[in-house]
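Margin note from the TA: students keep mixing up input and output lines. Inputs are the sequences; the output is the structure of the whole complex. Example:
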Amino acid sequence: MIGPFSIVVLTGAGISAESGVDTFRDTDGIWSKVNIEDVATPEGYVRDPERVHAFYNDRRRGLPGVVPNAAHFALAKLEREFQGEFLLVTQNIDDLHERAGSAKLIHMHGELVKAFCDRCGHKLEWRADLSTGDACPACHGHGRLRPDVVWFGEMPYQMDRIYDALAKCDLFVSIGTSGNVYPAAGFVAEARAAGARTVELNLEPSEGANLFHHAVHGPATKIVPDFVESVLRG
Ligand code: BV8
């Protein structure tokens, strides 16, 4: 069988679970502790910005205490050693893919370690707590810095680049996502329409399981390295 020439990988919270980062919809996941509307929507931010800052400050503070796992490293190896085109799209806002060495990477839902000013648009790295007391270093506006995170009802980042890659890929791999959130959950259908082989690597069948040609179920630190080896062996 001729190997793939172009691979697109989509990851979700499940790839970071074994690093100790909470997922959203597993039992006692993030959404079982807070209301999406209060902390992950523009309306919630306008209503109570400090509540939203506290939610992201708590998650941002957790980042130095977690490290990439074997699944993150396996995807960085695939990017380095695969001879064709490669793109990793993550829904995650943690920085574990970068810290594992991934570079051809799109954070479609933004990044916890970045902030932007909703007054002047200035974007900057921000690893400390964020609050309404912070001023934008560019326009000096106060209380206008928000986490650089895509909330519900907001447009995810780099969608054109992602759809271009999906239209050209011949292997689409979805890892550690429950397939609940759009537009990410629709990527498998785009890839199939482009003639790609579609594979799901997840702890259990996702919402979109029936759209995948193949599936491997198990913990990412086990099934992702095995899958990467099988692709690199061709
Ligand atoms: C948009 C960032 C339109 C912040 C997130 C009504 C009103 C408004 C919008 C909508 C609506 N109905 C539908 C929508 C669209 C909406 C949506 O899809 N809603 C869903 C809930 C129905 N989507 C949006 O609003 C998107 N924007 O549509 O804009 C638009 C159009 C034009 C112009 C302007 C706008 C924006 C969506 C992005 C929202 N932001 N997060 C943050 O992180 O706090 S979403 C959030 O969910 C995270 O990003 C997360 O990544 C994402 C998906 O969750 P998963 O990653 O899949 O995590 P989950 O816990 O669900 O699953 C984990 C999986 O891993 C499980 O399957 C589990 O089995 C597995 N697993 C666990 N452990 C392991 C494992 N697998 C392997 N190994 C393990 N060890």
